[in-house]
Amino acid sequence: MKILIIEDENELADSISEYLSEENYLCEFARTYNQALEKIESFHYDCILLDIMLPDGNGMNILEELKRQDKQDGVIIISAKNALDDKIKGLQIGADDYLTKPFHLSELAARIYSIIRRKQFRNTNIIQQNELQIDLLGKTVKFKNHPIELTKKEFNLLLYFIGNNNRIISKSTLAEHLSGDFADMLDNHDFVYAHIKNLKKKLNEVGCKNYLKTVYGTGYKWEG
Amino acid sequence: MNKLLNKSLKSFTIYALIVLATSVPAYYFLVDSIWLRELDEHNEIVADRTEKELNNLNLAETELNQSITLWNKIQPGTNLEKTTLDKNRKDSTYTVLRKNPYVAHDDIDRFRGLSRVIKIYRENYLLTVETNVEETEETAIAIAILTFLFFLILVVGFLILNRRLSVKLWQPFRNTLTELKTFNLNSQSNISFEKSNILEFEELNVALNKLIEHTVSVYKSQKEFTENASHELQTPLAIIKNKLDILLQKEALTDRQYQIIEDINKALTRVSRINKNLLLLAKIENHQFDDSETINVSELTEECLEQLQEHFSNKELSVHTSIEKDCVVTGNRVLIEVLINNLLLNSIRHNSQKGIVEVKLNQTGLFISNSGIITLEKEHLFKRFKKTSEESSGSGLGLAIVEQICKRHQWTIDYKFQQEKHTFKISF
């Protein structure tokens, strides 16, 4: 899987690449607007991470360029601006997703995973993870053709874990993922534990192997 | 409170009254003395003529006496009689008050008299001539009435002029005031005063303009600083966050190390939240939100409650809602959602285990209450970074944002503590 990271902050680009490389993603970098244009013209990427605040140009134009060239690359906008109109504009021009800095790498990884799967399996939208079958569109999960009834949040968590295969995700990161902006306002992150427990239980009930491991007491890891 | 012009009008009126009041005795004395001088002159003419004519008649003694008797009878106000007084005695003038026998009314009249010794055929006679003169009080009253009339004319004139002047003269001042009243630092509009040809008002406008320009520029740079600082912080925060994510993946962390990473993560989340909130505040103040959508608050409130459902049950709170169907407001959806969420989150965070949350919504407003122990300080409640409770995890901006959002939508927010409940009331 090829990923293009269009980001002028080296540290940020490096961290992203380091995190993603472990999952067989191949990362390339573009530090400037012009470099980015060159890259997208010459190569095809499965997913492009686009920082719209570039020193020598507006990332939105890159998005328009991609559209003009009728490229099918998935695009995630990364922005320091939490501006709603930016988000809407970006999604309208054809970005698949929008992330506001600062974000967790696990969040980014989960979104890249979903986008690439959506692009790849445009006909079926089915992800096969060991014996689990996940239907992205129908938001249903089957284990060896046994349907598993999951709540919205449990389904969301499952995807998150699968998108971060073999990564450790801390409880606070999960809390942030589940409750968005409220996480730090709720001192109590027990609700994360409740959802995880239910998810584990439902997977165990149908005889699914225990892929979801607890590490360091409050961290989690999907070992698929 | 008095109007400035009314103040000066009052002084002018009092001054006019004093001047006119003192003019009454002055006029009186003037008129009276003219009167008396004229009458003295008249009396003297009468006396001279009488003396001369009687001497010219060349009457015999008896005839003369008869004539004098007749004279005395038919000439009112004069009297002629023999006297032993010396011819060289000085004339005397005097004023008497008595009834006039020749008029019907009973009033006492005033007379100016002249008594003089005249000589008719070597005989001395005392002639007294008395002429009716206007009474003092009558003169005084007439003058006073007239003066008062003039005073009234003056005052009425003042009032009319005052009204016209206050409209015309103060127009520039009023324009300036209107501009000032509508001026709001937050709204990006610049203020411009109408030119005035009155020196003082023009000076005022110039001074105000300077003050406002300065204030606006300070305010702008302050705001820009906040915004830029927040923006610039996002990237380093992102870097720290990501580095922690990577650190977490490293093999063989100890539980203690994991815990430290987790603690840093939590603090980091708080920092980024404060940052986001500062940006949000700046954006609300910059009017970067369209606020003309029509929003069904009932549905929105239900959605927010739904999202927080698990957090309510986590703290075992009993939630009582009475939400009227289809309450509609005009505003910005994102902001209103932030407002409702902030208030609901507060009702969870600042609540006791198994406490109560009440949410009431109707077309007039939204009430959110939760159990509490002591009242919060109202004056600090909506200030930024003012912690009103022991809780430490908040960003200290939640209520400041709520207040700003209310302002933006021209709603009022009110806080009450009664029956061991904190209640926030937003009136649409």
From TrEMBL, chain A:
<feature type="domain" description="Response regulatory">
    <location>
        <begin position="2"/>
        <end position="116"/>
    </location>
</feature>
<keyword id="KW-0238">DNA-binding</keyword>
<keyword id="KW-0902">Two-component regulatory system</keyword>
<dbReference type="InterPro" id="IPR011006">
    <property type="entry name" value="CheY-like_superfamily"/>
</dbReference>
<dbReference type="GO" id="GO:0006355">
    <property type="term" value="P:regulation of DNA-templated transcription"/>
</dbReference>
<feature type="DNA-binding region" description="OmpR/PhoB-type">
    <location>
        <begin position="124"/>
        <end position="224"/>
    </location>
</feature>
<dbReference type="GO" id="GO:0000156">
    <property type="term" value="F:phosphorelay response regulator activity"/>
</dbReference>
<dbReference type="Pfam" id="PF00486">
    <property type="entry name" value="Trans_reg_C"/>
</dbReference>
<dbReference type="GO" id="GO:0000976">
    <property type="term" value="F:transcription cis-regulatory region binding"/>
</dbReference>
<dbReference type="GO" id="GO:0005829">
    <property type="term" value="C:cytosol"/>
</dbReference>
<dbReference type="InterPro" id="IPR001789">
    <property type="entry name" value="Sig_transdc_resp-reg_receiver"/>
</dbReference>
<keyword id="KW-0597">Phosphoprotein</keyword>
<dbReference type="InterPro" id="IPR036388">
    <property type="entry name" value="WH-like_DNA-bd_sf"/>
</dbReference>
<feature type="domain" description="OmpR/PhoB-type">
    <location>
        <begin position="124"/>
        <end position="224"/>
    </location>
</feature>
<dbReference type="InterPro" id="IPR001867">
    <property type="entry name" value="OmpR/PhoB-type_DNA-bd"/>
</dbReference>
<keyword id="KW-0804">Transcription</keyword>
<feature type="modified residue" description="4-aspartylphosphate">
    <location>
        <position position="51"/>
    </location>
</feature>
<keyword id="KW-0805">Transcription regulation</keyword>
<dbReference type="GO" id="GO:0032993">
    <property type="term" value="C:protein-DNA complex"/>
</dbReference>
<dbReference type="Pfam" id="PF00072">
    <property type="entry name" value="Response_reg"/>
</dbReference>
<dbReference type="InterPro" id="IPR039420">
    <property type="entry name" value="WalR-like"/>
</dbReference>
<protein>
    <submittedName>
        <fullName>Response regulator transcription factor</fullName>
    </submittedName>
</protein>
From TrEMBL, chain B:
<keyword id="KW-0808">Transferase</keyword>
<feature type="transmembrane region" description="Helical">
    <location>
        <begin position="140"/>
        <end position="161"/>
    </location>
</feature>
<keyword id="KW-0812">Transmembrane</keyword>
<keyword id="KW-0418">Kinase</keyword>
<feature type="transmembrane region" description="Helical">
    <location>
        <begin position="12"/>
        <end position="30"/>
    </location>
</feature>
<protein>
    <recommendedName>
        <fullName>histidine kinase</fullName>
        <ecNumber>2.7.13.3</ecNumber>
    </recommendedName>
</protein>
<keyword id="KW-1133">Transmembrane helix</keyword>
<dbReference type="GO" id="GO:0000155">
    <property type="term" value="F:phosphorelay sensor kinase activity"/>
</dbReference>
<dbReference type="InterPro" id="IPR036890">
    <property type="entry name" value="HATPase_C_sf"/>
</dbReference>
<dbReference type="InterPro" id="IPR003594">
    <property type="entry name" value="HATPase_dom"/>
</dbReference>
<dbReference type="InterPro" id="IPR036097">
    <property type="entry name" value="HisK_dim/P_sf"/>
</dbReference>
<dbReference type="InterPro" id="IPR003661">
    <property type="entry name" value="HisK_dim/P_dom"/>
</dbReference>
<dbReference type="Pfam" id="PF02518">
    <property type="entry name" value="HATPase_c"/>
</dbReference>
<dbReference type="InterPro" id="IPR005467">
    <property type="entry name" value="His_kinase_dom"/>
</dbReference>
<keyword id="KW-0472">Membrane</keyword>
<keyword id="KW-0597">Phosphoprotein</keyword>
<dbReference type="GO" id="GO:0005886">
    <property type="term" value="C:plasma membrane"/>
</dbReference>
<feature type="domain" description="Histidine kinase">
    <location>
        <begin position="228"/>
        <end position="428"/>
    </location>
</feature>
<dbReference type="InterPro" id="IPR050428">
    <property type="entry name" value="TCS_sensor_his_kinase"/>
</dbReference>
<dbReference type="Pfam" id="PF00512">
    <property type="entry name" value="HisKA"/>
</dbReference>
